[in-house]
Specification:
The chain has 351 residues and is α+β, with helices and mostly antiparallel strands. It contains 8 helices and 20 strands. It has a 6-stranded mixed sheet with strand order 6-7-8-3-9-10, sandwiched between helices. Strand 12 and strand 13 form a beta hairpin. Helix 3 packs across helix 4 and helix 4 packs parallel to helix 5. The protein starts with a strand and ends with a strand.
């Protein structure tokens, strides 16, 4: 039984033929960290704002815990939904100390309880000794932790985070993914995070909700989203992939493509003729006597691996070459002929 329920939630702003959010259904368990992932304009932030109460759905219902926060009869304001919000720019009050920033949402509490709770959450986010400081005296990562402490202070049912890592540089971003996840886990807080960055989503999420054009494309664990994308959009948005048209073989385990026969990880139940397969670049391994061979057209050194573009004899000049990730210590040169194998575990049928 889910803790947060969205049923047929729709939001139309101007054009009824193009809803910002189009009849989505989603259930989130208590204590779960779920990320809404997708490109700009896909509806993820609008969905978050409807859960928070900042936007009113055109249709559908939203339930948090035992409380119906929106249906055709009632739409509770944000302050009565039991949600904590961490905004993209943190929205800290510059003239207030950290203690007073965190205390801001505890209006109806006694002063003693306020001070005790502020001490607890600042300790939780690792800033117990910073209570008397002001936001401008902190780094970006520390400001983010203060914003999270303020959201957690009133014991919310759910914490909502809008692009929480977008303002941080690469090194700090990686650390804050770890810190934020650890804080949410320690407090057993249900959280919904919005991002367009797949690394953010993969690092922090129990499940990822991939959205496009207001529609949920797939809901799954990070591993399943990557290894078993449901359709071409998910396969291409979540990492790089090679998409090939093919014909499913009678054994339902192999696909004939223009580069040759490709093996699926397991026998499919789909009795289809023409199909598409997604092959991840790291699922292709350059070896001395591989099943497939081609000519190297381009090599891009990324630091972690080499991105090698290989054109097979069966491919025309208009076909997209195969992309293969090779180890950085493997000697690969433009123009040479290479052979490679494809690991079935990183092959998926897509719609």
């Amino acid at each position: 039984m889910g803790f947060i329920h969205l049923k047929q939630v729709t939001k139309i702003f101007n054009d009824p033929s193009k809803p910002a959010v189009d009849h989505i259904n989603l259930e989130i368990e208590k204590g779960e960290i779920v990320t809404l992932l997708g490109p700009s304009g896909c509806g993820k932030t609008t969905t978050l704002r409807m859960i928070a109460g900042f936007e009113k759905p055109t249709e559908g219902t939203i339930q948090i815990g035992d409380q119906m926060v929106h249906d055709e009869r009632i739409s509770l304001p944000p302050e009565k939904r039991g949600v904590g919000m961490v905004f993209q720019d943190y929205a800290l009050f510059p003239h207030l100390t950290l203690e007073k920033n965190v205390m801001f949402g505890l209006n109806k509490w006694s002063l003693m309880k306020k001070k005790q709770r502020v001490k607890e959450v600042l300790d939780l986010v690792g800033l117990a000794d910073y209570g008397k400081r002001y936001p401008h005296e902190l780094s970006g990562g520390q400001q983010q932790r203060v914003a999270l402490a303020r959201a957690l202070a009133p014991y919310p049912n759910v914490v909502l985070m809008d692009e929480p890592f977008s303002n941080l540089d690469a090194g700090l971003r990686e650390k804050m993914r770890y810190d934020v996840t650890a804080i949410l886990r320690k407090s057993n807080t249900t959280a919904i995070i919005v991002t367009h960055d797949q690394k953010d989503a993969f690092s922090v999420s129990d499940r990822i909700v991939v959205m496009n054009e207001g529609v949920i494309q797939q809901v799954a664990t990070p591993r399943d989203i990557y290894r078993c994308p449901k359709n071409c959009f998910v396969a291409q948005f979540v990492g790089k992939t090679n998409l090939l048209d093919g014909t499913l073989c009678p054994d339902l385990k192999h696909v004939n493509t223009h580069i040759g026969r490709v093996c699926l990880p397991k026998q499919t139940e789909k009795h289809l003729n023409h199909v598409k397969v997604s092959i991840r670049p790291e699922g292709c391994r350059l070896v001395d006597e591989g099943r497939y061979s081609g000519r190297v057209e381009r090599v891009i050194y990324s630091g972690e691996y080499q991105e090698v573009s290989v054109r097979l004899p069966s491919q025309s000049d208009y076909d997209v070459p195969m992309v293969i990730y090779a180890p950085i210590d493997q000697d690969v040169k433009v123009g040479q002929t290479v052979t490679f194998d494809i690991s079935p575990e990183l092959v998926a049928l897509v719609e």
